[in-house]
Amino acid sequence: MLRFWNRLVRLDETRLVKRIFMFYADSPNNWGDDIRQIAEMLHLDHVWHRQGLFDIEYAKSQCNVMMNHEWKIEVCQKPKLRTYIQFKHDFGLEPYLRHISITRYSRSILAQLRVGILPLHIETGRFKNITDQETGNIRKLLPNERVCGICNSGDLEDEIHFLFKCHKYQDERVHWEALLSRNINGYMYLTIDDKLNVLFNIEWNVLIKMVMQFWDIRKDTLYK
User: Fold this and answer.
1) Residue 79 within a domain
2) Count of domains in the chain?
3) Which residue(s) pair with 138 in the sheet?
4) pLDDT for 88-145, tens place per residue?
5) Quick check: is 36 in a domain?
6) 164 within domain boundaries
7) Are residues 144 and 40 in the same domain?
8) Would you tell me the crossing angle of helices 2-10 and 56-76 to the nearest 10 degrees?
9) Residue 219 is part of which domain span?
């Protein structure tokens, strides 16, 4: 829209399309009014009022800043993105989505893990009904009751437990951690938050292989 505005502004004053545009530019609820609102949103309303040319690259950068800000606010408000917000810091397309060697199934599993909808018990437990021992009423499992049924540790089965804590995958985890330690100096001494950043933002190719192996073990354990 801003590019088209620039084209109109550059037209000769005698051009019919420009004369019509300028005649209705100040009218509400039309294309010109949409441009005015965009300009105000980008703090460029002075350009609209003097009918100047928009700096398209600057407008793009301002849009990106605003979108990134709004995105951060929205993701922090969604409980399912509890893990996502620990490693995803800026809006943008992830490298693994462009990698042609990754299968569609593997890409799907990783995407589900990232956004908190992989069918771990923290997610599937929301659909499970139980009888409340105190009231005798039927109710849904509370989040803190959705424990891991793979290792029977009594810990909540969320993304952190799946990746770093579940005893069922310990032997396999040792293998992947050794590989990550060779790639990332001091990996074993990182906090879980730092490990998440390494896995999802740097070593995502290792993460995919590790997650797929863990997921196959989980399926075999639950559904064999």
Assistant:
1) no
2) 2
3) 131
4) 988 888 888 888 788 999 999 999 999 999 999 999 998 888 888 888 899 888 888 9
5) yes
6) yes
7) no
8) 160
9) 95-223
